[in-house]
């Protein structure tokens, strides 16, 4: 029996029982049962129905409620695990990879000043990893409008340039999208997607050059990341081991964005578009 059926039975069974009793009493039992006795028997009958039939219905209702609470707890646990995996990937895994890239750069820093700058960059990344770990432990929830607003006080273009400078692959920036065209939540999500795309170019594409471009307005915009690497296979985005691509796809869906990855003119393009008027 479903939750809705039990609820309606609890509401209507006492009414139907009392109505049937009153009809039988007035039609057939008046010669045998006085009016006063009948009036006393009516609440007794309602009580007996309540402690028998309705008590069972309430027990079933409580059982369904407990099952729903268990399902909600399991769902919350799964969502927390997924959120933790996203936080670990976006923060710790990417930062560790960038740390390895910066360590490799130390081999190509002949002068002392550049060497010290590279060491400082490595130390900064280590502190960022530490911060990501503490943040993941403290809270698994992704509060884009609170925890991350402080990270976007600089312009969006400045943050994109910082991301581009973190990898060895040269990246050319053409950013014409106004900084106020995105909400704080949108900025956080698009920066995470751009970081993932740039890291993938460094890790997998074997590219010698990349391009990041953005154009549009607050109603509709387009961000594209291109590279001249080995190309993209369409089935990669649905592969189980393409964790970063799956996260980008999920982010785009949550923000109602359109995400496309395609090969054109010997370039691989990842395009994220917010629909409205054409950007």
Concise structural overview:
The protein is an alpha+beta fold.
Explain this structure to me?
The chain has 279 residues and is α+β, with helices and mostly antiparallel strands. It is built from six helices and five strands. It has helices at residues 3-29, 35-105, 112-138, 156-165, 184-205, 243-254, and strands spanning 171-175, 210-216, 221-227, 258-264, 267-274. It has a five-stranded mixed β-sheet. A hairpin with a 2-residue loop joins strand 4 (258-264) and strand 5. Helix 2 runs antiparallel to helix 3 (112-138) and helix 5 packs antiparallel against helix 6. The protein is elongated and about 115 Å long. The protein starts with a helix and ends in a 5-residue tail after the last strand. Residues 140-152 have low confidence and may be disordered.
- Could you name the ranges where pLDDT drops below 50 across 5 or more consecutive residues? 140-152
CATH topology of the largest domain: Heat Shock Protein 90
CATH class of the largest domain: Alpha Beta
Please provide the ordered H/E string of secondary-structure elements: HHHHEHEEHEE
Oligomer: single chain
Question: SS-based structural class?
Answer: alpha+beta
Q: Kindly state the mean pLDDT as a whole number?
A: 79
Number of strands: 5
Tally of structural domains: 2
Biggest sheet statistics: 5 strands, mixed
* CATH architectural category of the largest domain: 2-Layer Sandwich
């Amino acid at each position: 029996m479903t939750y809705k059926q039990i609820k309606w039975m609890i509401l209507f069974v006492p009414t139907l029982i009392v109505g049937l009793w009153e009809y039988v009493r007035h039609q057939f039992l008046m010669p045998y049962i006085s009016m006063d006795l009948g009036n006393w028997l009516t609440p007794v009958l309602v009580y007996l129905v309540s402690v028998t039939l309705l008590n069972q219905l309430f027990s079933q209702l409580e059982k369904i409620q407990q099952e729903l609470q268990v399902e909600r707890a399991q769902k919350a646990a799964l969502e927390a695990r997924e959120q933790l995996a996203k936080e670990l990937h976006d923060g710790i895994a990417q930062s560790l990879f960038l740390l390895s890239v910066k360590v490799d750069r130390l081999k190509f820093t002949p002068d002392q000043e550049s060497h010290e700058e590279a060491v400082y960059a490595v130390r900064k990344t280590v502190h960022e990893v530490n911060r990501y770990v503490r943040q993941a432990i403290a809270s698994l929830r992704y509060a884009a409008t609170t925890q991350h607003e402080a990270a976007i006080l600089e312009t969006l273009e400045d943050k994109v340039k910082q991301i581009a400078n973190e990898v060895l692959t040269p990246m050319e920036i053409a950013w014409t999208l106004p900084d106020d065209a995105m909400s704080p939540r949108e900025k956080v999500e698009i920066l995470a997607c751009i970081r993932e795309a740039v890291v993938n170019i460094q890790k997998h594409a074997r590219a010698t050059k990349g391009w990041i471009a953005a154009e549009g307005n607050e109603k509709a915009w387009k961000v594209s990341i291109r590279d001249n690497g080995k190309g993209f296979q369409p089935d990669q985005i649905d592969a189980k081991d393409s964790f970063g691509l799956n996260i980008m796809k999920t982010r785009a869906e949550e923000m109602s964005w359109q995400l496309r990855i395609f090969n054109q003119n010997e370039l691989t393009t990842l395009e994220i578009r917010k629909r409205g008027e054409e950007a």
